[in-house]
Design a protein that fits this description.
Distance between the termini: 13 Å
Oligomer: single chain
Helix content: 25-40%
Radius of gyration: 18 Å
Number of helices: 9
Length: about 260
């Protein structure tokens, strides 16, 4: 078995069960892996500022994967390493589709979250993430440049239906996934956690076989497929559980620590 040199961790419902709270066992296992020379990073749908409490606790010094793979950002200084922004016409079309479906959608201007109108989800999101925000009633009328992703939200029981409608309408132009219940992530076709992880491994001269990726949702599926060892926590979605090389205990049972303790250390 190839020795693991790089571990990419999804955050929500993989590394953390409560917002920004890393369990003592998970943190101890990650520290032990780091001391052994393994580079441990995050691969998240969040932006750099939104994930600050995580990369700070992990004391990451090096690239982190943000916005579902649209950005590689150096921690802790926040310098962008690579950015794959969505084409402006794709941003406009995604916003128009969401408006037509009658669901909320928002974009990201750097680490500022922007929506056309306020709604309970928008309030919940910027308060939960502690991100700067603004309302722009003319959002769909403007040309939006340098947007790493569009995030739409539907009630969890309807999210799969809307994900499929977005995917059909934007076929060949966007990859549409669900990261958390109700969170519909719209990224460019060439952008994924896998593409960013492959780029990161290449930068560090680490072979694919020496990379592990741990996640729980469809947003993580690409990197779980790509990594030499693709790992899903037991609370993961059925399609990810089916395709993972390895299933570890749930997030609540410190599945990240279990993997590191048994397969890395």
């Amino acid at each position: 078995m190839q020795k693991i040199q790089l571990i990419a961790l999804d955050i929500d419902q993989t590394l953390t069960c409560q917002k920004d709270v890393i369990s003592p066992r998970n943190l101890a296992a990650i520290r032990a892996a780091q001391k052994k020379g393994v580079f441990v990073t995050i691969a998240t749908g969040r932006g750099f500022l939104s994930s600050k409490k995580i990369w700070t606790q992990l004391e990451i010094e090096g690239p982190t994967i943000q916005y579902g793979g649209a950005m590689l950002v150096h921690s802790p200084d926040g310098k962008p390493i690579s950015v794959d922004a969505l084409p402006a016409d794709l941003v406009k079309d995604a916003l128009e589709l969401a408006n037509g479906y009658g669901i909320h959608a928002q974009i990201f201007d750097g680490d500022t979250v922007v929506a056309e109108r306020d709604c309970p989800f928008f309030t919940f999101y910027h308060e939960r993430t502690n991100l700067p925000y603004r309302i722009d009633p003319a959002l769909r009328e403007k040309r939006q440049e340098n947007v790493p992703k569009v995030l739409a939200y539907a009630e969890p029981e309807q999210a799969l239906k809307f994900q499929q409608e977005f995917q059909t309408a934007l076929a060949g132009r966007a990859d549409v996934t669900i990261s958390q219940p109700g969170f519909i992530e719209i990224n460019g076709c060439a952008v994924s956690k896998a593409s960013a992880l492959e780029k990161l491994a290449g930068m560090m001269d680490i072979p694919q076989e020496a990379v592990a990726a741990i996640g729980d949702s469809t947003l993580d599926l690409s990197m779980i497929r790509w990594a030499g060892c693709g790992v899903c926590v037991a609370n993961g979605t059925p399609n990810v559980l089916q395709e993972a090389d390895l299933i570890v205990p749930s997030c609540q049972e410190d599945g990240v620590a279990y993997y590191i303790e048994n397969y890395v250390l």
